[in-house]
Design goal:
about 130 residues, 5-stranded antiparallel β-sheet, single chain
Length: about 130
């Protein structure tokens, strides 16, 4: 089950709300309960990826959420051809920790070029909290 949303001017609040609504709507299709931890982690991942797209890409971007029984796939497509990469952990570095957060919360991160820019997909487990 999937849904796509534009990342517009009130992007982060809308993206987080869309994520909550999507997980609630898909709960009727998939057995089991999405933990509060997983729901909050999904919203944080969405926030980080949408923020990066709006900050670094000059054109429109889109958020696509895809649900399976065990995971949610968060995909953000934007018009920037530059592929982001997580920096090493550095508590003294101001900012640029978004992908570090995504990597810490997700079981997979895929970054690749797309026809009009790039596509970043993070896969977040919904059935078990990720070990710290």
């Amino acid at each position: 089950m999937s849904a796509t949303y534009p990342c517009d001017d009130d992007r982060i609040a809308r993206a987080r709300a869309a994520t909550r609504e999507f997980l609630a709507r898909t709960a009727t299709v998939f057995p089991g309960t999405v933990s509060r931890h997983a729901e909050e982690a999904a919203q944080l991942v969405v926030s980080e990826l949408v923020t990066n797209a709006r900050k670094y890409a000059p054109g429109p971007s889109h958020l696509t959420l895809t649900r399976t029984a065990e995971a949610v796939h968060v995909t953000v497509e934007d018009t920037s051809p530059y592929l982001p990469r997580p920096h090493g952990t550095d508590p003294l570095r101001p900012g640029q920790h978004g992908l570090e957060i995504v990597v810490a919360l997700c079981r997979a991160l895929d970054v690749r070029r797309a026809a009009a820019g790039k596509r970043v997909t993070a896969v977040l487990d919904l059935t078990q909290p990720r070990a710290a």
